[in-house]
Design goal:
With 144 residues, this protein is of the alpha+beta class. It has one domain (20-143). Helices cover 33% and strands 26% of the residues. It has six helices and six strands; from the N terminus they run αααβαβββαβαβ. It has helices at residues 2-16, 27-31, 35-42, 53-58, 99-105, 125-130, and strands at residues 47-49, 64-70, 73-79, 85-92, 115-120, 138-143. It has a six-stranded antiparallel sheet. Strand 2 (64-70) and strand 3 (73-79) form a beta hairpin. The longest helix is centred in the first third of the chain and has 15 residues, at 2-16. The termini are far apart.
């Protein structure tokens, strides 16, 4: 009986401990790299977009992008034709994920002097909630 109580107490204490959120991507480091260095560090992207000549003619500011995923977290990295990174968008699919939690996942701070962040809210928060999505759409991070 003592052993059963000890096991039960262990399970209860483990399940009530708050898990520490760890960074998934190091966005400040990514912002200092070129796109080839990012590919070398993160591996193959899950999706890639490179604008063609017609698209560039219509929008000369259109950027290429790569997307990487780890567990629930995704980043989309925008870069120019020289491979210089212009920004990173981080999002997470975990239900109820907050902006502060996403900042931890991306290793970013809202007080940085190196980069700026912009929290992107859902266009339709009610619909996002019905999908059991994060509380925000994501966070844009750009060098200052």
């Amino acid at each position: 009986m003592k052993r059963l109580c000890a096991i039960t107490l262990f399970i209860i204490s483990c399940s009530t401990q708050k898990q520490t959120l760890e960074p998934v991507f190091n966005i400040p480091k990514i912002l200092t790299m070129n796109i080839q260095q990012v590919k070398n560090e993160l591996g193959n992207p899950v999706s890639e977009f490179t604008p063609n000549k017609e698209q560039i003619k219509l929008d000369p500011l259109l950027k290429a992008s790569l997307e990487f995923n780890k567990d629930f977290t995704s980043i989309v990295i925008d870069y120019n034709s020289n491979g210089e990174i212009s920004g990173v968008f981080i999002s997470d699919k975990k239900e109820g994920r907050t902006a502060k939690e996403m900042m931890v996942l991306g290793s970013v701070s809202d007080s940085s002097t190196e980069y700026s962040i912009k929290i992107v809210n859902w266009i339709n928060p009610t619909y996002a909630k019905s999908l059991k999505a994060a509380k925000i759409s994501g966070i844009e991070v750009e060098l200052k």
